[in-house]
# Entry
Amino acid sequence: MKYGINIPNFGWFGDIDTLIKIGSEAEEYGWDGIFLWDHLLVFKQGDMVLPFADPWIALAAIACNTKKIRLGPLVTPLPRRRPWKVAREALSLDHLSKGRLILGVGIGAPPDVEFDYFGEESSAFIRAQKLDESLDIITGLWSGEPFSYNGKHYHLDTMTFLPKPKQTPRIPIWIGGSHPFRAPFRRAARYEGVAPVHSKWPEPITPKHLERILGIIQAERGNLDNYDVVVCGETSGTDSKKDTEKVIPWIDTGANWWLEDIHGLRAEIDELQERIRAGPPIIET
# Structure
């Protein structure tokens, strides 16, 4: 099991200096990865107005202040991005970080605030189509070979993107998806990992949910070899018995990445930073 930090890009974490500090401390205190949410608003205007930081710029800054920790957006909503721009940004960040980027993507949520407010298409069906086309384009451009595309939503004349990714065969892609839907996990089977959530977030998924999700993925892939299975939760970092009881059921189900949820929905900023400094949970075997 690898252990990472999963933090928003708004509220207390809408400050670029705070994100750089957290990234550096996550590496210092033994975490394997740091992943940032990718939102523009999240809350309906009038409900809550918070500062935000652009996660891609923050990740570039974190990459410049760390040496070994994996990093990436979790998740970037591709339907509101130009896929060729994401492809170029990812290539640059992959090289800047010396091959440490993991690209997490999804259809984006909540649709009203993150899409309707900006005049973007919020239909889940259309967003799913755009997500699939975007992934085709991004992986095609990463090939470093001449590539063209003619889809329902996107059209590219023949072009070649260089440099190729620092990582081989490509930058790993994690697909975010909501339980109990099946389509996101059939999609996830075509890439390097899955990061499931519950469709009624913040209601959590359970190991039983994950077992069903992995059944869908395995039916598509044939096996889960060299495949990342990402779950999120909360541990203490100080009580090994309780942390073991919480994490082991996920390991037994097939998860190999545990991301500590660090966000202002559960505690004060000082308490969250202390959790990072306590390091990954110590699991008794």
About this structure: The chain has one domain: 2-277. The longest strand covers residues 173-179.
